[in-house]
Specification:
The complex is a heterodimer of chains A (462) and B (272).
Chain A (H helix, E strand, L loop, with lengths): L2 H26 L13 H38 L2 H4 L3 H16 L9 H39 L6 H41 L2 H6 L3 E5 L9 E4 L2 H32 L2 H14 L4 H23 L8 H26 L2 H9 L4 H30 L2 H6 L17 H9 L8 H34 L2
Antiparallel strand pairs in A: 1-2
Chain B lengths: L24 E10 L2 E11 L4 E5 L6 H8 L9 E9 L2 E2 L7 H7 E4 L10 H12 L5 H14 L3 H4 L12 H13 L5 E5 L7 H14 L4 E5 L3 H7 L2 E6 L2 E7 H6 L4 H7 L5
Parallel strand pairs in B: 3-8, 3-9, 6-7, 7-8
Antiparallel strand pairs in B: 1-2, 1-4, 4-5, 9-10
Helix pairs in contact in B: 3-4, 3-6, 4-6, 6-7
The chains are: A mainly alpha (462), B alpha/beta (272).
The structure holds adenosine-5'-diphosphate and magnesium ion.
């Protein structure tokens, strides 16, 4: 019985359980006329029976399926001839991989060695047995649960309240799953980073100014020092983010002020949604714009001014990233400015303040914490932004403050470290996890501060 | 100052005497529209110096709207249109050469909900003098802040914490801060729109006492929902109904012996 058939069977069993529970509840009060003597509606008894029948069966099946492959492979491996089992671990796991591939149909069985083919058919036989046994177990668990619930149904049984609790539990399970996934991702990054720091000392990583992650494969290879100093990457990230902020904060803020305080009602109704659409443009499109338009443009200007602008420069990437963030800053700032109560504006006007005085000295002053929070969020977006810098900033890990040179960023290096065929335990690939962890910590810190500031600000006017 | 009242048009419906000798404000045939809605219908009234005028009437009858005409705060409302003559010391405030900023410095306003700026107590009071350049140096500014807070009866409570945010004060203190902020620019008239409706009875009593003191220096117009308050603080009362000014008169007379039927119904609590 394949998993999908078993799933259908469980659903069918649950439907039967619904009818059984409902019928039992009705029977306990002598048919439809006695419904008012039931504590809950008949449907509640049915739903409760169905849930109690379906959930254990489903859970059992899910647990079994998640463990099945590991168990079966171990069983197959144990039956293999001794000379195969005594292979070194790497070749042995390669062999098992072949077996799996044959089972999955990725490799035709007639193209592999007889040992592999034999192991594969052994695996398949075991899997059929396993699937039948889980089907029997899951369905009987469902039936047993059904019978237990059915036997407990009496008129005063509080099915309605229990259904509530079950549903609450289900919802809780889903939200826990989301949180656990996040924690799992973070933990996996942390563990890989720890492996990296076992090879490369933390201080070298944090304070080293040399970044060239190419490890020498042969001793006589040149240009492969294998230096993992992350300072140039963070400096590059900082430089590009700073340029982006220099573009995004003034333009975003001023456009927000115009929209919130000056723009006619109709114009605001058109421009604000437009800005929000702009925020949804995929960043790869901005990257394109940086490479094909801004980069060459800056270079051309550089030539005219007698400056040496490299084709991939921090300036080009920063400018375009700033343009990308403008809608974000402007939309957030606009929200903050419109959240300032009208009574504050009235207070200033009534004292004889002009419009720009009111905006500068009262409205912006009141909205400042929220705007600062928004800018922090924007910075954390800039730091984590990948596509634009991959396309426009370059790969050279220069430690420089000159925006006309090519620099590289943390995100760009993570991409380059992981692109292509890599061994997952070389320091080079592990370095990507360490960089990812650092990036995660920095943006997390920024976001926490920003959310705190924004929340504080919101409370003030509620 | 030449500030005789403007002539009153013939055949007005308002009961009582709308004119006073030497008025600060003289309003003639004032109409306000919000889009199509006619919110104030041909109101004529003078406002006297050193006296409190109370405006009463059921909700939505146009008291706030009329009050906002006097410092042109209706200008800030989209779709609001004001017609008629409103003369401050004989000068029509709607004239082209009238500077709104100047007008609002002369006619201060206190709002229903205390609205201190997100600044320190000191800066709240200093704000008006700063933007109008009333103080030559820091010493003068200190003096203005000090005397305004004293006159608003707040000095003793805040003298040690002038640098704390204005929002850290209690509601009643915030409202007195707003009054201090208003008198810091030395206005001629103070408009108050239900200044006590967000306050508890004790804070209300303090503000009422304060209004009584301020009357010695300023003309005051106060909108209130409480007839007791109108009776306590005002010398003259105006009763509004659905945009009409129904009756104006000395407060004592209006409350003991109203002449218009509508006024009587309102005061005896038949509607409101
Ligand atoms: N900004 C506005 N836009 C449209 N109508 C308004 C506005 N403000 C007040 N009104 C209307 O004008 C009338 C008078 O309002 P208002 O002066 O606030 O009354 P009061 O202060 O006496 O309660 C009401 O009917 C109200 O609905
Ligand atoms: Mg009102």
């Amino acid at each position: 019985m394949t998993p999908s058939v078993l799933l259908l069977a469980i659903v069918a069993l649950s439907l039967i359980a619904f009818q059984v529970g409902r019928a039992r509840a009705l029977a306990s009060v002598g048919g439809l006329r006695g419904v008012r003597n039931l504590h809950s509606l008949p449907g509640h008894y049915g739903l409760l029976t169905a849930l109690w029948c379906g959930i254990p069966a489903l859970l059992l099946a899910l647990i079994w399926w998640s463990a099945q492959d590991q168990v079966l492979i171990n069983l197959v491996a144990a039956e293999l001839p001794a000379d195969l089992r005594n292979l070194d671990p790497a070749s042995f796991s390669l062999f098992l991989n072949d077996v799996r591939n044959v089972v999955a149909g990725n490799i035709p069985a007639d193209q592999v060695s007889t040992e592999t083919a034999g192991a594969a058919s052994h695996y398949l036989r075991l899997r059929t047995i396993s699937q039948w046994s889980i089907a029997v177990m899951a369905l009987s668990a469902g039936v047993i649960a059904l019978l237990i619930v059915r036997s407990r149904i009496r008129p005063e049984f509080r099915a309605r309240n229990r259904v509530e609790r079950l549903i609450e539990g289900l919802l809780f399970l889903c939200s826990t799953l989301a949180v656990l996934t996040t924690i799992g991702i973070v933990l996996s990054v942390v563990f890989e980073s720890i492996r990296f720091f076992n090879i490369v000392p933390l201080t070298d990583f944090l304070f080293g100014t040399q970044w060239s992650p190419q490890m020498a494969i042969r001793a006589d290879q040149v240009g492969s020092s294998g230096a993992f100093g992350a300072v140039p990457l963070f400096a590059g990230t900082l430089l590009i983010s700073a340029i982006a902020m220099c573009v995004a904060v003034p333009i975003g803020l001023f456009s927000a002020i115009y929209l919130a305080e000056y723009a006619p009602y109709k114009l605001r109704g058109i421009v604000k949604p437009l800005l929000e659409v702009l925020a949804g443009v995929p960043t790869v499109v901005y990257g394109f714009f940086a490479v094909t338009t801004i980069g060459p443009l800056l270079r051309g200007w550089g030539v005219e001014l007698g400056l040496d602008v490299s084709g991939e420069s921090a300036l080009a990437a920063g400018l375009v990233m700033g343009i990308m963030i403008i809608p974000f800053v402007s939309s957030l700032a606009d929200d903050m400015i419109t959240a300032v109560p009208q009574s504050l504006r009235d207070g200033a006007y009534a004292l004889g303040a002009t419009r720009s005085e009111t905006i500068r000295q009262v409205v912006l002053r009141a909205a400042l914490p929220g705007i600062v929070g928004g800018v922090l969020l924007a910075i954390s977006r800039a730091i984590g932004e990948t596509m634009i810098v991959v396309m426009a900033a370059g790969l050279a890990a220069n430690l420089t403050a000159n925006p006309l040179e090519a620099v590289t960023t943390v995100t760009v290096q993570i991409v380059t470290l992981l692109v292509g065929d890599q061994e997952f335990d070389s320091p080079k690939t592990l370095a990507a996890f360490a960089l990812g962890l650092m990036l995660f910590l920095v943006t997390l810190l920024l976001n926490v501060i920003a959310l705190y500031v924004v929340r504080k600000y919101r409370e003030q006017y509620e | 100052m030449s500030s005789a009242a403007l002539p009153v048009p013939q055949g007005i419906k308002t009961v009582g005497t709308v004119t006073v000798a030497e008025p600060v404000f003289s309003c003639r045939d004032v109409n306000v529209y919000y889009g199509d809605k006619h919110a104030i219908k041909g109101v004529n009234i003078d406002i006297a110096r050193k006296q409190v005028l109370a405006m009463i009437g059921p909700s939505g009858c146009g008291k706030s709207t009329f009050l906002r005409c006097l410092n042109r705060m209706n200008d800030t409302i989209l779709g609001a249109r004001v017609e008629g003559q409103i003369a401050l010391e004989g000068q029509d405030i709607h004239e082209k050469r009238q500077d709104v900023v100047q007008l609002r410095a002369r006619v201060g306003m206190v709002f229903q909900k205390p609205n201190p700026f997100p600044k320190s107590i000191y800066e709240n009071v200093a704000y008006g003098p700063r933007i109008h350049g009333l103080a030559a140096d820091r010493g003068e500014l200190d003096d203005i802040v000090n005397s305004s807070l004293r006159r608003a009866g707040l000095w003793e409570e805040v003298k040690d914490r002038l640098n704390q945010p204005g929002t850290s004060l209690s509601g009643g203190q915030q409202q007195r801060l707003c009054i201090a902020r208003t008198i810091a620019v030395n206005p001629e008239v103070i408009l108050m729109d239900e200044p006590c409706s967000a306050l508890d009875p004790i804070a209300t009593a303090r503000i009422e006492d304060l209004i009584d003191e301020l009357r010695e220096s300023y003309a005051i117009c106060i909108v209130t929902h409480s007839m007791q308050q109108a009776a306590r603080v005002s010398q003259r009362t105006a009763y509004f109904h659905l945009g009409d000014l129904v009756e104006v008169g000395e407060t004592d007379k209006i409350f003991t012996n109203p002449r218009a039927k509508l006024t009587e119904d309102y005061i005896t609590g038949r509607f409101g």
